[in-house]
Design brief:
The complex is a heterodimer.
Chain A (H helix, E strand, L loop, with lengths): L1 E12 L2 E12 L3 E5 L6 H8 L7 E6 L2 E2 L8 E4 L11 H11 L5 H11 L15 H13 L5 E5 L7 H16 L3 E5 L3 H7 L2 E6 L2 E6 L1 H8 L3 E6 L12 E6 L4 E5 L5 H9 L4 E7 L3 H9 L5 H11 L1
Parallel strand pairs in A: 3-8, 3-9, 6-7, 7-8
Antiparallel strand pairs in A: 1-2, 1-4, 4-5, 9-10, 11-13, 11-14, 12-13
Helix pairs in contact in A: 2-3, 2-4
Chain B lengths: L1 H15 L2 H24 L8 E7 L5 H15 L12 E6 L6 H13 L5 E5 L15 E5 L6 H21 L4 H7 L12 E2 L6 E2 L6 H23 L1 H11 L2 H6 L4 H33 L8 H28 L3 H20 L1 H6 L4 H7 L5 H9 L8 H28 L9 H10 L1
Parallel strand pairs in B: 1-2, 1-3
Antiparallel strand pairs in B: 3-4, 5-6
The chains are: A alpha/beta, B alpha/beta.
Chain lengths: 310, 437
């Protein structure tokens, strides 16, 4: 069952089409990752799901019904750009949003979450005294104070140190375990690969990718080689069949062109240096993202490239 | 609605818990009463320095009379019952007219005024008893540095005219004894209307109506209403703009609808105004009762004050909140604030004409314009005249309808603009938002 359905939605700002004929179905209990370059329409789409912006065309359904703000108590929302009442005390602030979300005992719930995020000693302090990381955690608490059925997070890990990112990740997974559906946008492809059941990529307002990581990678085939050799990147120069090299120093990620034979490439490298590791793999999400969102490519090229893969 | 009330509660608490609120609570009446206080304190503080005034009497008829009149003034008219001096003593210096060098004589006297040797000088024409229209010798002229506002000029004008009329009447052959009666002036005393004591049924005599009472009550009520708007409705523009630019609005919109957000903010502001005005009204009623000045308490309009204030704050508040949502920074808000405030400033300019003629066409028409009704109808109702009953009722219906429209239209603009960044929408775009929703 889909808890969020987007049916051919379009949104324009003047002459600029921010979201173009977008359809999406988010299954219950899943973690859905939104990826896409800056300005591709992720936030606009999320705001339309939240009923903060209204689509020019198309329908949005939450729990199978058109969303008119009546579902707000079942949704937790963390916007991309955070804002807090700076003069309010931390616990008061959490309780206030708890009240707005119809949480039965907001003060008790506030205590619980502040404890969980190690913010108890800041409960009586004003929000303006918090560090950026603590403010982010506070924003996250506000988003999930009502333990919502749907959690929508716009860049939840942005600006967080690894420890705090880990805490938030654990809570997201925990809430999913309890039955929540999570939709979040991210620029961190590693997080999307590891956390998301489904990945959705939007580019210039249009849907480019939508599916599980495996299904997406399958569409691109096994055109990637991970290699660790004594010669490093310098020995890869001029070998036929290599389209692009991504150098990580110790290792290199090679993208082969369509007609290349990986065995011939291996033989060519072995003729030049000693090879410690040679792995044929599917492209990483990061690589797929870059292939699609490379600035020099036009949207039509992207589409044709994607279609040719499928 | 419940969510709007939760927002209202937060807004209210955030406002009344601040030191600024307490400070405003104290400063507001001082500011409001400041003008009246200064006027009361200084209205009797006149210049008591002796005034030397030169008189050039071309008619030659007034020297003795003026000498005697000024002596009488200095002896009897410049002191109150307690013997305190309340007006300056005047001393005349009679100058022989120099007909050949008239202008030079006046120039010399002007220089003496500039040197502060004289306060003023007066020229009395030779034909003053039977003046010819436009005749050079048919006028009386008072020369001073501030002649237009000089009280001594008015005094002189009175006494010289009394004497001129006396001379004219004597020329008609009327007895000197009867002439005094002719000039005995009787003031018409202003009184209010008689009432019936609702408890005893006895007729309550009319009270003497004072200028203070006639102006003070409407003045205070109007200013209180204005201050409440300034304190709660107008700041909504910048408050909403700040919540938008600080991204608080979007976080809130994850929990409430834009309409709940806007209405919550307005109700919160309304709560602040009601608290403040209730404190002031209760304080004023208590103080005036203790001072036995019950006639100054406008019991018959207090309920109207609160009805109009509630509607006015909702009406203006929704306009301000909607405009605040269209602003992207404080510069936008500043540019927007003055035009947005105009509708509530205009009634202040109309205050005196309306108080002086509350039943006039201008006062009636303006008080039925919904944006001004709360202030101007209240002003008219608080004067001592009786306003036809249909007018406050029609005004109230108009305000209610207009308030509903403002909330509806304001919510549509608010909803459409609270997240939008970039260029501030033009007027036409706002109209489109209202129409389209």
């Amino acid at each position: 069952m889909s808890v969020i359905e987007l049916d051919h939605i379009t949104k324009s700002y003047g002459n600029h089409i921010a979201v173009d004929d977008l359809s999406l179905q988010v299954p219950k209990g899943s973690i859905y990752g939104f990826i896409g370059p800056n300005g591709s329409g992720k936030t606009t789409t999320i705001r339309m799901i939240m009923n903060i912006l209204y689509p020019d065309n198309g329908l949005i359904r939450i729990f199978g019904r058109e969303h008119i703000g009546s579902h707000l108590d079942s949704i937790g929302y963390l916007p991309e750009e955070r804002g807090l009442y700076r003069k309010m005390k931390v616990k008061e602030l959490v309780s206030f949003y708890g009240e707005l979300k119809n949480v039965p005992k907001p003060a008790r719930e506030a205590d619980f979450w502040l404890e969980k995020f190690d913010l108890t000693k800041w409960a009586g302090k004003k929000a303006e005294t918090l560090s950026k990381g603590m403010s982010q955690k506070l924003q996250f608490i506000i988003a999930i104070i009502n333990r919502p059925d749907i959690i929508i997070l716009d860049e939840p890990f942005s600006g967080l140190d690894p420890v705090n990112a880990e805490i938030i990740k654990e809570v997201i997974l925990d809430l999913r375990q309890q039955g929540a559906t999570v939709l979040f946008s991210t620029h961190d492809m590693a997080v999307a690969e590891k956390m998301c059941d489904f990945i959705f990529m939007i580019y210039k307002g249009r849907k480019i990718l939508d599916g599980t990581l495996e299904s997406i990678q399958k569409k691109y085939g096994q055109d990637t080689i991970l290699i660790h050799s004594e010669g490093g990147v310098s020995v890869l120069d001029g070998i036929p069949g290599i389209e692009k090299i991504n150098d990580f120093g110790l290792m290199q990620e090679i993208r082969m062109n369509n007609k290349a034979d990986n065995q011939q490439i291996l033989a060519a490298i072995m003729a030049r240096t000693r090879v410690m590791k040679f792995e044929i793999a599917s492209p990483s999400l990061n690589d797929i993202f870059i292939r699609i969102a490379r600035p020099e490519k036009t949207e039509n090229n992207e589409q044709s490239s994607y279609n040719s893969q499928t | 609605m419940n969510k709007a009330l939760i927002i209202a509660k937060r807004e209210y608490r955030a406002a009344v818990r601040t030191k600024g609120f307490i400070l405003a609570l104290i400063l507001l009446p001082l500011f409001m009463g400041g003008g009246l206080l200064v006027f009361t304190l200084f209205k009797d503080k006149v210049d008591l320095d002796d005034k030397r005034i030169a008189v050039i009497d071309h008619s030659g008829l007034f020297e003795d009379y003026l000498a005697s009149a000024v002596e009488n003034r200095n002896r009897n008219e410049i002191f109150n019952e307690k013997g305190e001096q309340i007006a300056p003593a005047i001393f005349f210096e009679f100058i022989r007219p120099d007909s050949s060098e008239m202008n030079q004589q006046k120039l010399d006297l002007s220089d003496r005024v500039r040197k502060k040797e004289l306060h003023a000088f007066i020229q009395i024409g030779s034909d003053i008893i039977h003046p010819q229209p436009g005749g050079a010798q048919s006028g009386i002229f008072y020369f001073a540095e501030n002649a237009a506002l000089d009280n001594n000029r008015s005094w002189f004008s009175n006494i010289i005219n009394n004497r001129i009329r006396e001379i004219r009447i004597l020329e008609l052959g009327v007895d000197q004894d009867k002439v005094t009666d002719l000039f005995y002036w009787i003031n018409v005393e202003g009184l209010g209307l008689l009432n019936i004591d609702t408890k005893t049924g006895a007729i309550i005599d009319a009270r003497k109506s004072s200028e203070l009472q006639t102006i003070l009550v409407p003045y205070v009520l109007l200013l209180l209403m204005f201050m409440m708007l300034m304190m709660s409705a107008i700041p909504l523009l910048t408050a909403v703009m700040e919540e938008k630019t600080e991204r608080i609005a979007e976080v809130l919109l994850g929990s409430v609808t834009p309409e709940q957000f806007m209405i919550g903010k307005i109700i919160g502001s309304l709560g602040v105004s009601l608290t403040t005005s209730a404190i002031y009204v209760a304080g004023a009623v208590f103080t005036l009762s203790r001072m036995n000045l019950n006639e100054l308490i406008p019991y018959h309009v207090i309920h109207w004050f609160f009805i109009y204030m509630v509607l006015n704050i909702i009406m203006i508040g929704s306009i301000m909140a909607a405009l605040g949502a269209t602003c992207n920074d404080s510069k936008d808000a500043q540019a927007m604030q003055f035009p947005a405030m105009l509708p509530i400033i205009i009634p202040l300019f109309l205050m005196m004409p309306v108080i002086l003629n509350p039943l006039g066409k201008m006062a009636t028409g303006c008080s039925l314009f919904p944006l001004w009704t709360p202030m101007l109808m209240l002003l008219r109702q608080s004067t001592s005249v009786t306003i036809p009953l249909w007018q406050p009722i029609v005004g109230l219906i108009g305000v209610i309808l207009f308030t509903v429209f403002c909330v509806w239209a304001g919510a549509r603009i608010f909803r459409s603009t609270i997240i939008l960044q970039g260029k501030r929408p033009k007027f036409g775009t706002l109209i489109r938002y209202i129409a389209k929703g």
